UniProtKB/TrEMBL annotation:
<dbReference type="GO" id="GO:0032259">
    <property type="term" value="P:methylation"/>
</dbReference>
<keyword id="KW-0808">Transferase</keyword>
<keyword id="KW-0489">Methyltransferase</keyword>
<dbReference type="Pfam" id="PF04672">
    <property type="entry name" value="Methyltransf_19"/>
</dbReference>
<dbReference type="InterPro" id="IPR006764">
    <property type="entry name" value="SAM_dep_MeTrfase_SAV2177_type"/>
</dbReference>
<protein>
    <submittedName>
        <fullName>SAM-dependent methyltransferase</fullName>
    </submittedName>
</protein>
<dbReference type="GO" id="GO:0008168">
    <property type="term" value="F:methyltransferase activity"/>
</dbReference>
<dbReference type="InterPro" id="IPR029063">
    <property type="entry name" value="SAM-dependent_MTases_sf"/>
</dbReference>
Amino acid sequence: MTTENPGKPEIDTTVPHSARIWNYWLGGKDNFPVDREAGDKYAETFPGIFDMARASREYIGRAVTFLAAERGVRQFLDIGTGLPTENNTHQVAQRAAPESRIVYVDNDPLVLGHARALLTSRPEGATFYLDADLEEPEKILEQVTELLDFSQPVALMLMGILGHIRDYEKVTAIVGRLLQALPPGSYLAVYDGTATDPDLLKAQEDYDDTGAEPYRLRSPEQLTALFTGLELEEPGVVPITHWHPEPSPLPPLEVNAYGGVARKP
């Protein structure tokens, strides 16, 4: 196991922080009053954010389980992992396949401060953490090729991270570059919040105005376009609660986040 730049991070508790707010919405404890205040203000405009946060976490678990248990993937590149909670990628993957190798990538000093919590692994597998930025795919690839075997399939996970890049053309270029480096048989797994509800858009605009790092919500069509040239798994790019839902007598909860999983031919 390894980590990069394991110094003590400088954490600003006077400005709301997206990772800490998300942690609050998920019921975690790694947040401060400024984050809870911002999270509650967001929820006043868009009360569904708590359900959306939980649904997003559950979707990640189902996608990783699907890839490890049903598609035989044993290597995962999880970029923009955020703060650790329950059922992190390495835990889910190694539950299905103990020999799985996971590389987490994030450039956030707060997440870096929790690297030790992420750097746990079943003895049969391995878990690594890289301090790198999604906007620098070459740097990510240079480091990750030392940790994963690029002659074998890799699952590239971009979960709730792409909105941090405001230019959509830059998003497509970054995703394309990362996919280009992966071998055939690899997978792309994505989810993101979508601009499908005016209250969600208003809540996000108000949040961006606080001085916190802004986030760009996109259309389902824009997310679907990221899978161009790949073989989408059923049911395609859909609301995340409709993607391989757990059996239930109740219909899936409707949320404003879409996701999908696809194979590189």
